[in-house]
Design a protein that fits this description.
Blueprint lengths: L1 H4 L4 E2 L3 E5 L5 H10 L9 H24 L6 E7 L5 E12 L16 E10 L8 H15 L5 E6 L4 H9 L3 E4 L10 E6 L6
Antiparallel strand pairs: 1-2, 2-3, 3-4, 4-5, 6-8, 7-8
Helix pairs in contact: 2-3
Amino acid sequence: MSSIMLLPVLETERLTIRPLVMSDLAPCHQLYVEIRWGDSALSVEANRERRRSWLEWTIRNYEELARLLQPPYGDRAVTLKDSRRLIGLVGLVPLLAPFAQLRCFGNIERARFTTEMGLFWAMFPAMQGQGFATEAARALIDYAFETLHVGRIMAGTEYDNLASIGVMRRLGMRIERNPFAEPAWFQITGILENDHANS
């Protein structure tokens, strides 16, 4: 069982999705700078050190999660096959949110939080708009559905993140909008059911 929990290197037509390694620190740090995910209250060096700590934890996490028979959560490097250049990150992540607030799950105001398997992606701005996020995310979905037999995958974003909503649509996700004002960060959810989960 643990072998399937250790996510292998995945390949698509144009991409390789692989585990991160410490030599990925510089491009990962640059990605976070370019998409403005760094902590603006910290210096450049402090942000880089925070990214180093995150990368060390991420690398250790691959084997530790597999050893505990837990899902292969965490970021993976998305690289171009021809040049091996790191162009972004993609990963499976645990999501904790009041999903029962969504119309498809009950439309219950102030619903309790539950967990779902989530999908995450982030691409360098220069690499966006070329289908790379969709291609990388599709590879992870295929693994999660076909090998891990996950019944459903979700993704979340903000109301105004049209690029991410577009990726969700291209992946075949149903787009659900939180009909309530709270919590403020729980805005758009993409939902993809595994139609073959019980076959």
